[in-house]
Amino acid sequence: MKLSSLRHIFIAFICLSSQLSCGTAEECRDSMYPPKGPTFKGNVTWYTLNLDLPPSERWTHVIKEKKAELVAMIQAIKDLAGGFFHGKLIHLVDNELPLIVDTLPYPFNEEIKGLAAVSGVPLGEVVLFNIFYEIFTVCTSVVVEDLKGNIYHARNLDFGLFMGWDRKTHTWTITEKLKPLVVNVDFKRNNKTVFKSTSFAGYVGMLTGIRPKEFTLTVNERFSVDGGYIGILEWILGQRDGMWMSFLTRRVLENATSYEDAKNELAQTKLLAPAYFILGGNQTGQGCVITRTRINTLDIWEIALKLGRWYVLETNYDHWEEPFFLDDRRTPAMKCMNKITQANITLQTIYDVLSTKPVLNKLTTYTSLMEVSTVLYGKCSQPKICDISNIAPALKQKNATKHVIVFFFNFQLYLM
Ligand SMILES: *[C@@H]1O[C@H](CO)[C@@H](O)[C@H](O)[C@H]1NC(C)=O
Ligand SMILES: *[C@@H]1O[C@H](CO)[C@@H](O)[C@H](O)[C@H]1NC(C)=O
Ligand SMILES: *[C@@H]1O[C@H](CO)[C@@H](O)[C@H](O)[C@H]1NC(C)=O
Ligand SMILES: *[C@@H]1O[C@H](CO)[C@@H](O)[C@H](O)[C@H]1NC(C)=O
Ligand SMILES: *[C@@H]1O[C@H](CO)[C@@H](O)[C@H](O)[C@H]1NC(C)=O
Ligand SMILES: *[C@@H]1O[C@H](CO)[C@@H](O)[C@H](O)[C@H]1NC(C)=O
């Protein structure tokens, strides 16, 4: 059976058994910005990361502050995994995964070792935390051009499906544990900002980032038969010519110097897992979705004003195909974008789109709004990346009556 159809079955199963309102969209929201309400926990904290330090020392100050949250997160993963495999999985993680760390490319190997040393979390568990996202992240990303030629880029990062449904609070366990780990990081070299990112404390790859005045980048997972499990398995078995998705994203943010440069690298580097790279530039027309297989690029879909395409929006399905009907976040998001129109698009109105269910959902861990250009922008002029986590404004949900099985789908497949 195809992996994607397996996934569809599980989504359907979760929808039915938890009475989540999968597949139903609400009216487009408006006036959601700035974020407020009881579920808004405040602005995400900024940290500076000094790239001139040895990799093993770079994250020390972040981990010192976030250690308790990191330990709680990893404990939650262990609780889930322990229940499922009678503890065998964690034994494997603690004993086998540390061996992988030395095969990871520099500087990621050294940074991960440093994280383990400072946090006191076993090395294998930090490695697990760092390869987690290669496997199951569902997201919505959009790059937009307004009538003046300003480029905006925004995303919801949704994570934690199948990772423990809490029947009391009606939330996904891992998603909730991840929220306190969301941090904004300003990566500096010679005391100057190289790029900025919304990330998780303890995670060295990047999923969301901006090189101010140059480009913005997000990555969404792409499900495919030739998926991440196979790539990771090959890596473990010694075939290591592909690049980890989130490591490539970080390398591009750190070392590519223009939109074109970034686009070439994202399109041409061999990967461990298929992916969508969503890239925004600093000039009119510079916004694209790169649809990747592990080996090559299937398609580059760009903003094309002449064709009336003033934004490109990606969830987790190829843009030329219909999304799975129970997981259709694309249609409601596009409906709201089109309703706003290019004339009225701003970071605020994009935030409205990302706050509309089911684009916003119980897996949404953070929303990032990015503006690459030098044009100052209202409420989020300084710094020009405004990130909001813990948003979830009044997600109304029927009480779940049935039990959702905690299914460690991903790791099972990867261990097989
Ligand atoms: C969040 O940041 C914005 C802009 O930097 C500021 O105006 C606002 O007061 C902050 N909100 C909180 C709750 O700290
Ligand atoms: C970097 O900036 C800080 C504060 O602005 C300053 O104290 C420090 O000396 C600078 N370091 C270097 C290497 O220039
Ligand atoms: C970026 O380039 C520098 C200089 O070549 C190198 O030291 C660094 O490791 C690179 N960063 C990444 C993430 O590969
Ligand atoms: C856009 O990016 C290019 C390449 O990094 C840079 O040379 C140029 O100055 C940037 N343009 C603006 C308006 O910032
Ligand atoms: C833009 O927003 C304003 C104020 O909400 C509204 O009056 C106007 O009709 C909108 N324009 C378009 C083209 O939708
Ligand atoms: C949901 O559950 C809570 C507590 O378990 C209860 O107070 C509330 O009335 C329930 N809501 C509905 C709509 O059943």
TrEMBL record:
<dbReference type="GO" id="GO:0006665">
    <property type="term" value="P:sphingolipid metabolic process"/>
</dbReference>
<feature type="domain" description="Acid ceramidase N-terminal">
    <location>
        <begin position="43"/>
        <end position="103"/>
    </location>
</feature>
<keyword id="KW-0732">Signal</keyword>
<dbReference type="GO" id="GO:0005764">
    <property type="term" value="C:lysosome"/>
</dbReference>
<feature type="signal peptide">
    <location>
        <begin position="1"/>
        <end position="25"/>
    </location>
</feature>
<comment type="pathway">
    <text>Lipid metabolism; sphingolipid metabolism.</text>
</comment>
<feature type="domain" description="Choloylglycine hydrolase/NAAA C-terminal">
    <location>
        <begin position="139"/>
        <end position="376"/>
    </location>
</feature>
<keyword id="KW-0964">Secreted</keyword>
<dbReference type="InterPro" id="IPR029132">
    <property type="entry name" value="CBAH/NAAA_C"/>
</dbReference>
<dbReference type="Pfam" id="PF02275">
    <property type="entry name" value="CBAH"/>
</dbReference>
<dbReference type="Pfam" id="PF15508">
    <property type="entry name" value="NAAA-beta"/>
</dbReference>
<keyword id="KW-1015">Disulfide bond</keyword>
<keyword id="KW-0458">Lysosome</keyword>
<dbReference type="GO" id="GO:0017040">
    <property type="term" value="F:N-acylsphingosine amidohydrolase activity"/>
</dbReference>
<comment type="pathway">
    <text>Sphingolipid metabolism.</text>
</comment>
<dbReference type="GO" id="GO:0017064">
    <property type="term" value="F:fatty acid amide hydrolase activity"/>
</dbReference>
<keyword id="KW-0325">Glycoprotein</keyword>
<dbReference type="GO" id="GO:0016020">
    <property type="term" value="C:membrane"/>
</dbReference>
<protein>
    <recommendedName>
        <fullName>Acid ceramidase</fullName>
        <ecNumber>3.5.1.23</ecNumber>
    </recommendedName>
</protein>
<keyword id="KW-0443">Lipid metabolism</keyword>
<dbReference type="GO" id="GO:0005576">
    <property type="term" value="C:extracellular region"/>
</dbReference>
<dbReference type="GO" id="GO:0006631">
    <property type="term" value="P:fatty acid metabolic process"/>
</dbReference>
<dbReference type="InterPro" id="IPR029130">
    <property type="entry name" value="Acid_ceramidase_N"/>
</dbReference>
<feature type="active site" description="Nucleophile">
    <location>
        <position position="139"/>
    </location>
</feature>
<comment type="similarity">
    <text>Belongs to the acid ceramidase family.</text>
</comment>
<keyword id="KW-0378">Hydrolase</keyword>
<dbReference type="InterPro" id="IPR016699">
    <property type="entry name" value="Acid_ceramidase-like"/>
</dbReference>
<keyword id="KW-0746">Sphingolipid metabolism</keyword>
